[in-house]
Description:
By secondary structure, this protein is α/β, with parallel strands linked by helices. Helix content is 41%, strand content 17%. It has helices spanning 7-10, 29-41, 65-73, 83-100, 118-124, 139-150, 166-171, 176-179, 182-189; strands at 16-22, 46-53, 106-111, 129-135, 154-159. The protein has a five-stranded parallel sheet, with helices on both faces. Helix 6 links the parallel strand 4 (129-135) and strand 5. It is globular.
Amino acid sequence: MLNKAPFSEEITAPPEWVIVAGRFQPFHIGHWHLLQTVAKDLRQNQTLVIGVISAEQELTTTSMAMIEGANAHHTPSSNPWPIGIRLRAVAKVSEMIMHSEPTLEAIYIPLPRPDLHWSTIEAWLPGPRLWIIPDVGDSFDNAKADFYAAQGDSVRRIVGERLASATSLRQDANLWEARVPEFVRNIYQSWSPSSS
């Protein structure tokens, strides 16, 4: 039998997107710890979004902290892995998170740089958004939190210690065994700039 309840009565509240976004160059134990922390706290009406940020630079003269910080992090040398490789790694991460938290609803998607393409973020993830930002004393993380809050979105800071530095990992492959989760390590190691 057809349910004739008005459409408005079928929906209790819009879902909230809980967004953990990053370039994941590479995905490391700090990212993994952040996702595990967030996954344990999700409510029924929330969907975890693991967003892989595109590595693009803005050629602007503006001095906004978000753009300056993002440009510094989006140089070619800071982004050796293309988005396809990073999405493969995050697909594995999503599988591992959902295995550890079976009731969790999670998706992973490529995201354009939010400070350059805010209207795309709003179109792709409409409704309430909660951005998860680590609080480990990083000035760029502070700029991201300020930027998202200025857009009217919610921000949750996860206080902790810096467990890994992607910059250090890009510079020293000897750190990988201890700081890049084994379940994604081979995905990153299967691709190098010389193989493109």
